[in-house]
Structures are given as C-alpha cells and as structure tokens.
Specification:
Pfam family, one: Methyltransf_25
Number of strands: 7
Helix content: 25-40%
CATH topology: Rossmann fold
Number of domains: 1
Protein name: Methyltransferase domain-containing protein
CATH architecture: 3-Layer(aba) Sandwich
Distance between the termini: 45 Å
InterPro entries: Methyltransf_25 (IPR041698), SAM-dependent_MTases_sf (IPR029063)
Low-confidence stretches: 193-197
Radius of gyration: 17 Å
Strand order of the largest sheet: 3-2-1-4-5-7-6
C-alpha cells in the first residue's frame, strides 16, 4: 500500500495515523530551541514541517507564532488536512503536496522541522544537504525521529536500520557543514496503549537534534 493509499484509507474511516497531539520528542526539540533563542517565537518567522502527515506539528509551530509550510508527500493528506486546518482557523499554515526532493521554498526559511521523517533516497546526508539549501544563515534545523539504537521486536519505526537515525551521524554531518549543534541525543519515549493505560513494552528511543546554520 502506498503512503497516499494509507491516508486515503484512514481519512475514509475517520481515523488518524499519528493522532492530534505533538510528539514528546518534538516538544523536547522545540523547548530546546525556545530556551536557546526565545526571539524566534511569536515573531512571524517562516518554518517548514517536512513530512507533515496530519499536521500535528504544523499546528504546534503555528501556535508558537510561525508562518508554516506543511510539506507532505501524500496528496490525500495534504488536501484533507489543509481543509481541516482552514476550518480550525489555522490560516497561517500552507499545505504543499510534494516530495521534499522536488520542493524549493520561495524564500529562505528560518526553521526546519523534520519529525519522524524516515526515507530511503540517498540517506540522511542527502536530506541534510537539501534542508541546508532551504535555510537562511542563522536558521535552525530541528529533528526528532526513531533511533537506530533501538533493538528487538518492539522497536518503533521502520524495520530497516538504514532508515533509522543515529544522532552522532547527524551531528557530525551538520558540524562538517559548519552548523552549531545545540542538542544531539537519544531520549526514551513512553508508548501509551489505545486505552491510555500503561503497557509492558519498553519505551521507544528517539533521536533529537537541534542545530543552527552558520550566520556567515
């Protein structure tokens, strides 16, 4: 089943794949940014949410005062949640249906969020190079995704290790590009059950990276 078909099926059933609430790990990354540079909040800056899915993190960024581009590969998701957000009053979110490899912003971006963005096309270094081309000098990259350090049958995210993230690899790649790495670590994330009750699975392990592009 294609990514677009996944969303078509979920939308037809009135269901969500990821739910309405931001990931704890994304909240962690955003908190790190807000503590490092409080001036980025409520300043009308431009952020992109790469692989926006159902837009839960696009809404988070909008609530923090950003103008947001929600970039999503699935046409069904982009069309549906664009209308949902319009009805909810999120006029500052613009949905774009495009592969990240084919999209270029109209203006340099202030913040880029890549949350649980796992891909097979060229590896993370190729994606980081593309992301870098979108950012203004002094702009920020925020990343939160499934860690490669997970193991066992209850590991979360893609089953292919090359699609999972290694915070050391990402950090060193960004440093080679001249970025200041503000945070790079793996953090546990509890996995609630559908009922909200505690479960017996080990926590998921997420990679978080927050970095700033050199000013000059």
């Amino acid at each position: 089943m294609s990514w677009d078909d996944v969303f078509k099926s979920l939308i037809a059933a009135g269901q969500m794949r990821f739910g309405p609430h931001p990931s704890e790990s994304v909240l962690n990354a955003v908190k790190t940014l807000s503590e490092y540079d409080p001036a980025v909040l409520n300043a009308g800056l431009h952020a992109v949410d790469v692989g926006a899915g159902e837009g839960r993190h696009s809404k988070l960024l909008a609530d923090l005062g950003f103008k947001v581009t929600a970039l999503e590969l699935s046409q069904a998701a982009a069309e549906h949640y664009s209308e949902v957000h319009r009805q909810e009053g999120y006029d500052q979110i613009e949905w774009v249906n495009s592969p990240y490899q084919e999209w270029t912003p109209d203006e340099p971006l202030d913040v880029l969020l890549a949350a649980f963005f796992h891909h097979t096309d060229g590896g993370i270094k190729v994606a980081l190079s593309r992301f870098d081309s979108w950012l203004r000098p002094g702009g920020y990259i925020l990343m939160a995704g499934h860690s490669r350090a997970q193991s066992g049958p209850n590991a979360r995210g893609p089953r292919r290790s090359d699609m999972l993230w290694d915070y050391q690899e990402i950090s060193s790649t960004l440093q080679e590009m001249g970025y200041e790495v503000i945070k790079a670590e793996d953090v546990p994330r509890d996995l609630p059950t559908a009922s909200g009750a505690a479960n017996h699975f080990p926590p998921a392990l997420d990679t978080i990276v927050v970095a700033r592009k050199p000013v000059a």
